[in-house]
Design goal:
23% helix; binds acetyl coenzyme *A; Glucosamine 6-phosphate N-acetyltransferase; GNPNAT1-like; five-stranded mixed beta sheet; alpha+beta
Length: 231
């Protein structure tokens, strides 16, 4: 994906992360998920609801606050959001997808498909499902299923040979109804957590040093350049 604008309204505000038309022809009959009543990304069942790619203007539509119902997000400025949006778009492979309640211009559901480029399996593509969340006042109305099936079908459409996810045990049943399987001998998620860099400020007369990496500090300490420790 290049740096095309994907600004389908031409208003400068609705620049999309990826082309919105990719969601219009997804065949929901390919999914084992049961929707009662039947809905799809193109026809989500309510005229005030739209399933679409993340847009730059979603900073003002509560997208980050919605992610806050999933995990800690931090205090992200508009500039930070803009920069991350631009980097994701330039890199390609990021399909952050949202559901908007257009009556109140609020993002009420989200899920991300990331597509990895591989050498294995004949230079294949692998999809990963990340950051699935539905606003708590809209849960239990099929929106979780809708957003997950949307990005899963998108992964298939883009040519991924498989799609993987990590989830809490209590959500295994939810994902099984959507076609995901625990594979015997191949269903362990392992993590290595990295401690965020420690900022240490060192005052020497009028001069102030700030070191952001405890590893750099450790090296300097070892060489006797500094005699301070990480707190
Ligand atoms: C890969 C990842 O990102 S994992 C992280 C998942 N996200 C979270 O945990 C964030 C907090 N939770 C949520 O946002 C929501 O509860 C979601 C996204 C998990 C589900 O959204 P909803 O809109 O409520 O789901 P939806 O209405 O489509 O429910 C589908 C089915 O799953 C079941 N289900 C939904 N949530 C849960 C849950 N937490 N535990 C068990 N079953 C659940 C529902 O009972 C429903 O079953 P049914 O079809 O038999 O009636």
């Amino acid at each position: 994906m290049g740096t095309e604008n994907f600004n389908e309204n031409g208003d400068g505000q609705s620049e999309s992360l990826y082309p919105a038309h990719l969601l219009q022809n997804l065949d929901f009959n390919k999914s084992p998920a049961i929707f009662k009543p039947k809905i799809s990304a193109a026809q989500p069942g309510e005229d005030w609801m739209v399933v679409r790619p993340l847009q730059r203007s979603d900073y003002d539509k509560g997208f980050l606050q919605l992610l806050g119902q999933l995990t800690s997000v931090g205090n992200i400025s508009r500039k930070q959001f803009d920069e991350r949006f631009t980097l994701m778009k330039q890199a390609g492979g990021y399909y952050v997808t949202v559901i908007e309640d257009t009556r109140i211009s609020k993002i009420i559901g989200a899920a991300t498909l990331t597509v990895e480029q591989k050498f294995i399996h004949n230079c294949s593509l692998r999809g990963r499902l990340e950051d699935v969340v539905v606003n708590d006042t809209y849960r239990g109305k099929q929106l979780g299923k809708l957003i997950v099936v949307t990005v899963s079908l998108l992964a298939q459409e883009l040519g991924c040979y498989k799609m993987s996810l990590d989830c809490k045990d209590k959500l295994i049943k939810f994902y099984e109804t959507l076609g995901y399987r625990l594979e015997a001998g191949n269903s362990n998620a392992m993590n290595m957590r990295f401690v965020p860099p420690t900022v240490v400020t060192w005052n020497r007369g009028a001069i102030q040093f700030s070191l952001k990496s405890k590893y750099l500090l450790a090296i300097l300490n070892k060489q006797n350049y500094l005699n301070i420790s990480v707190v």
